[in-house]
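pinging the channel bc i need a second pair of eyes. not urgent but kinda urgent?? the chain im working w is below, pasted from the shared doc
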Amino acid sequence: LQVDIMDGLELSLGATQFLEWLKPIVPRTFMITDGPEEYALPIFDQLGHPMVFCNFFEADDEGFMKRLITRLKGQKLKTVQELQRLNFRIMAVGNSFNDIDMLHAAEKGVLYRPSEAIKKEHPEIPVVNNYDELKEHIRQIVADKVEPQSKKQKTG
């Protein structure tokens, strides 16, 4: 008996609409997941194929999963660092402990619907609980970015 567990996966309500809203505001959006590409492909289809960095499974001769291949150890943090090296400013969104290094490295990091344990251990990272709050958070970051430098500096 072979069961395709991925057929039933669906995006959280509002995810596709959120990414559509985001496109004109933040035209370069990358997704980084520690999950395997094979599990994520159906989600990519639903999201309109954004740029996604994943791990992947190695299959045996019969096509069964043999092991998970990690594309790059610490890929979330390293991806942020490399994009910054290319002069990109990074706004990162994460929801779990394995996102913390990435969120700290980004110019702006935010936790999206994190567990109570994460919120307690990392009170320094802003938290949003739904897409509307995330949109407002992003609007504020973008507004701060375009504010003239002279308004940000104190005059002596």
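so The chain is about 40% helix and 20% strand. and Residues 131-146 form the longest helix (16 residues). — does that match what u expected or am i reading it wrong
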